[in-house]
Amino acid sequence: MDNGSLTFNDYKTLLDNKIIISKTFNLKQIQPSSIDLSLSNEGYEISSSFLSSNGKVKKKLNNFIKKKINIENGIKLKRNKTYLFKLNEKINLKRNLFGKCNPKSSTGRLDIFCRTIFDYCNEYENIPVGYSGNMYLEVTSRAFNIFIKAGESLNQMRIIKNNHNYLNDKMLLKFNKSNPIVFNSSNIPINPEISQGLKISVDLNDKNKISAYQAKNNAPTLFFEKIKKHRISDFWKPIKAKNNSILINPGSFYILKSKEKIKIPKSMAGEMIPYDTAIGDFRAHYAGFFDPGFGDNFGSHAVLEVRTSEVPFSLEDGQTIAKILYEKLNKIPSKTYGFQINSNYQNQNLALSKHFNILED
After folding, report:
1. How many C-beta atoms lie closer than 10 Å to residue 325's C-beta?
2. CA distance 255 to 277
3. Which fold has domain 4-161?
């Protein structure tokens, strides 16, 4: 197993060697360079977020439980209430392995705020070197009431051997000269803007029929297992840009897309930086992870999940909204993002999560 971020066959090896342990595991959970984690039936409504730097999560949890719940047959996550779920997967990492978790794309596009916590760990999402134990997922649905069941996947995990292999700006510029990573809507390569990662700008051109979607208040319950079964108009308000801009209001959630089309080569993965105060007073992109092969030959638009924290913010066409870090994987994976594995967002435009039926609106 080579150094760097692991890929598809590596995860199969970790399962075979009981480094990743689960009684309910399905091979469909393995992605090109990550693994989907799944909810067990053990859940809790909790009074606040917490970390467990000095002990086991299960023991510290007793200080925060409002109600214990079993989600075997499903439960409605109420908007703005916080829950904690034990994940089905346990890990027993060796001393040269560490990891990172993040929400899946569909989770972020629904404004489900989730973070993974670990025993004896003072950080969310980051799996310490050599970690051995259970994993728990803290979940707060901020836009909608969501019905979920045990076995469903809200987040994913990446495992790294020894070190990340991020490309610095010089390396990324050199790679782009012979292997373009940014295209316009006509599939023509364009000059990338690279500074501590690839800069991504927002598409708010007045010519767009719809430039953004804003989550509606008082929407019906969304059923997470039902794909392409929900009406867009029940959950989202379409927004057309005016004077090449829109106003982002505090407390509201928006879906936008990048002006550029982004390509992630098959030998790499991409990680979007979720928040940068130098860019603006808002948070862009929950999920923050692109599998190798995203964008196929001529790139796909990046979908951006946006909230502002304190004050209204005027977002303008072409404004930088996020950055992507490119990382070389430890090998080209045997499977890559796209139609081969029924990926949901290849060649996407302004795309909502897979739960919505675009043909009904």
Report:
1. 18
2. 20
3. Deoxyuridine 5'-Triphosphate Nucleotidohydrolase; Chain A (2.70.40)
The fold of 169-360 is Deoxyuridine 5'-Triphosphate Nucleotidohydrolase; Chain A (2.70.40)
pLDDT tens-digit series, residues 45-63: 999 999 999 999 999 999 9
Place of tokens 């999940």: 305
The residues of the chain that CATH labels 2.70.40.10 are 4-161, 169-360
User: The tokens of 210 are what?
Assistant: 């719809």
Q: What is the pLDDT, as a whole number, of residue 282?
A: 59
Q: Tens digits of per-residue pLDDT, 199-208?
A: 999 999 999 9
pLDDT, tens only, 279-301 = 555 566 565 789 999 988 899 99
Q: pTM of the entire structure? A: 0.93
Q: Which residues contact 68 (CB under 8 A, 6 or more apart)?
A: 43, 44
